[in-house]
Amino acid sequence: MFDRVLGLPAHPLFIHAAVVLVPLLVVAGILYAVWPGARRHVRWTMIVLAVATPGAVFAAKESGEEFSGSDNFQSPQLQASIETHEGFADNLFWIILGLALVVLVMAYLVRPATAESVGPALAHYALIGLTVVLGLAACYYVFKTGDSGAKMVWDGF
């Protein structure tokens, strides 16, 4: 299912969605968490990104696993690089899934009109902290995943 799109390998196509959506979700989530004035402007965008981004990362990850099974990538050195790249992608998927869940809960608990939390203040601050930490981790892992993949493709050029 994640092997090809219109005859082309799906992985180089799918990674672009993940590379764009992950930073957008991070920015929207952090803006919503730390700047009450931005909440009414970014709330629905953040919710849509929280639903779409894990799907994009999952599609990129699964298409990469299909792509790595190609006969062209069977050398032991390349397989070791692919394994490192897949490790970064696995971490990114779980982090982005966690971030998506946190921002969805935050969108429910922290109302944009009142800038106040529906739940206890401690939950509000915990959600802010989780959003920032998971957002920074997502940025790190999207960079490391992309960097390791690009080095496999472009080293030697």
From TrEMBL:
Alphabetized UniProt keyword annotations: Membrane, Transmembrane, Transmembrane helix
Pfam (any one): DUF2231
Domain of life, per lineage: Bacteria
Residues annotated as domain DUF2231: 7-155
Transmembrane spans: 13-35, 92-110, 122-143
Keyword Transferase: no
Keyword Transmembrane appears in the UniProt entry: yes
Record InterPro entries: DUF2231_TM (IPR019251)
Protein name stated in the entry: DUF2231 domain-containing protein
Organism per entry: Dactylosporangium aurantiacum
